[in-house]
Give the backbone structure.
Amino acid sequence: MNIVDRFIKYARIDTQSDESSTQTPSTQKQFNLAKEVEKEALEMGLTDVSLDNNCYLMATLPANTQKQVPVLGFISHFDTSPDMSGENVNPRIVKEYDGKNIVLNEARNIVLSPDDFPELLHHVGEDLIVTDGTTLLGADDKAGIAEIMTAMQYLMDHPEIEHGKIRIGFTPDEEIGRGADKFDVAKFGAEWAYTMDGSEIGELEYENFNAASAKIEIQGRNVHPGYAKNKMINALHIANEVIALLPGNDRPEHTEGYEGFFHLIALNGTVDEAKISFIIRDHDKGKFEARKLLMEKSVAALNEKYDNRITLELKDQYYNMREKVEPAKHVIDYAFRAMEEVGVKPNIKPIRGGTDGARLSFMGLPCPNIFAGGLNFHGRYEFLPIPSLKKASEVIVKIAELVAKEA
Ligand SMILES: [Zn+2]
């Protein structure tokens, strides 16, 4: 099966995950794709094919060389984002994109336009896979699955390419932040791995945010406003003071690249009580710690002023994988060189978020992220240039080849 047909087959299977579920997988329908991929893996002749009760699928492409080659892994995820429907996905191929508007849905006047998404213009002349405007496409991350499966098929069909043992792994629930939760790193047994879960062709990512959440609760004192002098303590005004003590420029809407932030995500309250939620993000560990300290100091100062009416709960969420990946620099170098050798210009950039690879890196499996090729993830304007899809699969083959060659 060619990679495009394979991707489209996966894209048609609804695998949306659900944040409100406490089960793993969060939705049973993710098994529909998992079973399909399991079947393909068996038909292809991969070994150790195992799909567990939590919907984690692993398989092995055995080594075809006597050399001692490190075991490599490639990972992607089954689920699609809860942000947009993944039901009845109806992919369509736009041949040789002409640089103009693409009408996704005539009846509903939904148009994919380079005015809104200038990245489209990087792909003029290419064949693009787009949606019908009513769902997401699910290239995040079914492109990754198609790339990995196609690369395994290619290596099986080309025994002249020497490679070591390769492990592949597919997880549920990445989009709701739980993809690494039940990933059995020991069972996977790779020395290092790559998630095929980035976006634009060339992307290679091994730096992500350090992340924490902060929950603040303020107890006010409510009395009749007509008789409130020297008695009322308004929790909402204290909430304002907390917010005002944090630097106003360090917000998502004012930052990019390596700039961190405090992001106010919720503010609820009455005179009597108020709750504030922030997330704190920074690539730099020192600055990350300093941000948490600033929050603690701000709350402490206001507790002094208002007689201990404020509680703060800080929780670390995930850390920058750079400290785990950089000591194993060859992990990045192989991906970098593999891209160059298949004619892709590597583009190393920091992730302004987290990845499952970051969590796996801290679980003992260094795991940078490589492009899967799709753009505009999580929405109806998602699209996948076919040349990017093919190149990502070639990168996988080339990494396997380079690692074996230099072992
Ligand atoms: Zn993804």
Observations:
- The chain is about 30% helix and 20% strand.
- The longest strand covers residues 210-219.
- The mean pLDDT is 97.
